[in-house]
Design brief:
610 residues, alpha/beta, Glutamine Phosphoribosylpyrophosphate, subunit 1, domain 1, Rossmann fold, eight-stranded antiparallel β-sheet, seven-stranded antiparallel β-sheet, binds 5-amino-5-deoxy-1-O-phosphono-D-mannitol
Length: 610
């Protein structure tokens, strides 16, 4: 959580920092601040609220300089106050820094420093303690001080630092929290927590690894490893462009991203389906022998990524011969895991920076399992740690609520399922052909749903009084009900609970009355008649029923209050279609309630701390 940005160069510093912070606001948005230096003059401006509030303050109190850093905060240590907002200075204001992460031993450090250094801390943050510790270690060489600092801090951190004693330099240190740097080669250099902040200026970036330190100046970038030894770093070219990180005329990123899902499906399948055959060999150097050697398949993820994994599990269990286990990373990492050389473990993470998913991956790696990342961010920590990667090809997702990456995750996991099934000798050529046709038809079907968004807007408007929703689904539609409920609650703050439809009678039915709408995901499939009984049970309790059903299905006409029809598809593929109306319903519902859709309260796009 939290977004960091830094810039040194000829542009107006505050403009570059504010623009960068705006594109990182998905990482945290309870307060923001910048520090700008002009030779050795230091100006720090911070404000509670969104980056726009900081921007407004800067209009009344403009600051200028030649290099600077900025931060958008997701509070951990200390409440949401101006004083706790970053940047933070050391007690003697020699240096100033911004921090993303958590310092676990900051209390001990603070106690130890208090016995040696005079002064009063202004904030309740762990970060101010880091600034003071660094200042105490600085003896004229920042890289040496940072090398020592890393040895003393426990936890995760990405830091960007300005020092009065070392003007015209920005120093960076990464341990556990992401940091990327880049230069245009024209007298300017940038650092940021994520690529979108740098993308307007350059597509060539360097990802720092754990322990890496960087010095940014007008001349370019220099790097050192955790022992303070100079190192060379590889430049990565990002194939995203700047248009991907603006709203493109949409009122919210979330709506833009929902509308991009047809393209995401096409991109996910391009070059991976050739002649109605799934071919992942360009990305996965696996032999048939490798695949046949893996007996267990573990899929581990959090949040929406976990629901994509649960959806794919239903398909994988039908068409592959693995012993499959799907778990949320925060549970998996603390359970007794039997993963070894006969295990393929798939870690699904949009950001590739989720702390629990990374911890789970490290456990499997230490046990000898083969680790595959399904991620959208090719330079992420997860992507760099695993044996193999399948990229989502969704482009940057800025809205905190994941939508298009869920679509991309399902597509990639389905392709993986077919590929594994074939290498295991369990998928016939004819079957593969049929599935490829189903997959290739999906973008058109998704786009036909998107053309009817007005229906969902109208539907959402009918239920704005509701304070509880129940979502139901069976079989492959159960994870979609979970995802629909998550989308609704995270952006509208209205309580939404999802159950496997068959579980309704085991408790949740007690909640039903005319004030609790029930959203039922019931595409025509082998289980839809069973779900129909649940609809009747809900209606008998006078609960309004909103159904997502298959075009041409007339069976619900006299029972459901509202029906949204999706095009028909083979039953394993219905999740790609049924999720879209649920995303749009959540979006319009939250919009009617006037919520901050792209930056819901208390949430951050990537959860980089446990
Ligand atoms: O980056 P990841 O896919 O690892 O993130 C996992 C979850 O934090 C994420 O899906 C979260 O649940 C979103 N808010 C869902 O919209």
């Amino acid at each position: 959580m939290c977004g960091i940005v830094g810039y040194i160069g000829p542009r107006k510093i505050s403009d570059v920092l504010i623009r960068g912070l705006r594109s990182l606001e998905y990482r945290g948005y309870d307060s923001a601040g910048i520090a700008i230096m002009d030779k050795s003059e230091m100006y720090v401006v911070k404000e509670v609220g969104k980056v726009a509030d900081l921007e407004a303050l800067l209009e009344t109190r403009p600051v200028s300089g030649t290099f600077g850093i900025g931060h958008t905060r997701w509070a951990t240590h200390g409440g949401v106050t101006q004083v706790n907002a970053h940047p933070h200075e050391d007690l003697s204001s020699r240096l100033v820094l911004v921090h993303n992460g958590i310092i676990e031993n900051y209390r001990e450090i603070r106690k130890d420093l208090s016995s040696r250094r005079e002064g009063t801390y202004k904030s309740e943050t762990d970060t101010e303690v880091v600034a003071e510790l660094l200042s105490s270690l600085y003896r004229g060489n920042m890289v040496e001080a940072l090398t020592e600092l890393q040895g003393l801090l426990k936890g995760s951190f990405a830091l960007a630092i300005l020092s009065r004693d070392d003007p015209d330099r920005i120093y960076c240190l990464r341990q556990g929290s992401p940091l990327v740097v880049g230069t245009t080669g024209k007298g300017e250099t940038f650092c940021a927590s994520d690529v979108p902040a740098i993308l307007p200026y350059t597509q060539d970036v360097v990802y720092l690894d754990d322990g890496d330190m960087a010095e940014l100046s007008r001349e370019g970038m220099k790097f050192w490893n955790s022992r303070g030894e100079p190192i060379e770093k590889k430049i990565s070219h990002i194939d995203w462009d700047v248009t991907m990180v603006d709203k493109g005329g949409y009122p919210h990123f979330m709506l833009k991203e929902i509308n991009e899902q047809g393209a995401v499906l096409r991109n996910s399948m391009a070059k991976r389906i050739v002649d109605e055959r799934v071919d992942l060999s360009a990305e996965l150097p696996w032999t048939e022998e490798d695949v046949r050697g893996w007996k267990k398949l573990h899929i581990v993820a959090c949040g929406t990524s976990y629901y994509a994994a649960l959806t794919a599990e239903r398909f994988l269990e039908r068409i592959t011969g693995f012993d499959i286990r799907v778990d949320v990373a925060s549970e998996y990492r603390y359970r007794t895991i039997s993963a070894d050389r006969d295990t393929l473990a798939v870690f699904v993470s949009q950001s590739g920076e989720t702390a629990d998913t990374l911890a789970a991956e490290r456990i499997v790696k230490s046990l000898g399992g083969r680790c595959l990342a399904v991620t959208n961010v090719i330079g992420s920590t997860l992507a760099r740690e695993v044996d193999d990667i399948l990229q989502l090809k969704a482009g940057p997702e800025i809205g905190v609520a994941a939508t298009k990456t869920f679509m991309g995750q399902m597509a990639v996991l389905y392709l993986l399922a077919i590929y594994l099934g074939r290498l295991q000798g369990r998928v016939t050529r004819e079957q593969e052909r049929l599935w490829c046709r189903e997959l290739l038809a999906l973008p058109y079907k998704v786009e036909s749903i998107l053309q009817r968004q007005g229906e969902l807007q109208e539907m959402a408007g009918l239920y704005t009084h509701a304070r509880d929703f129940l979502f139901l689904g069976r079989g492959i539609s159960y994870p979609i009900a979970l995802e629909g409920a998550l989308k609704l609650k995270e952006i509208s703050y209205v309580h939404a609970e999802a159950y496997a439809a068959g579980e309704m009678k085991h408790g949740p039915i007690a909640l039903l009355d005319p004030r609790v709408p029930v959203v039922v995901v019931t595409p025509r499939d082998a289980l839809s008649e069973k779900t129909f009984s649940n609809i009747l049970e809900a209606k008998a309790r006078k609960a309004p029923v909103i159904a997502v059903a298959t075009e041409g299905d007339e069976s619900l006409d006299d029972t459901a209050d509202r029906i949204f029809f999706v095009p028909s598809a083979a039953e394993e593929f219905s999740p790609f279609l049924t999720v879209v109306p649920l995303q749009l319903f959540a979006y319009h519902f939250a919009r009617f309630l006037g919520c901050h859709i792209d930056q819901p309260r208390n949430l951050a796009k990537s959860v980089t701390v446990e």
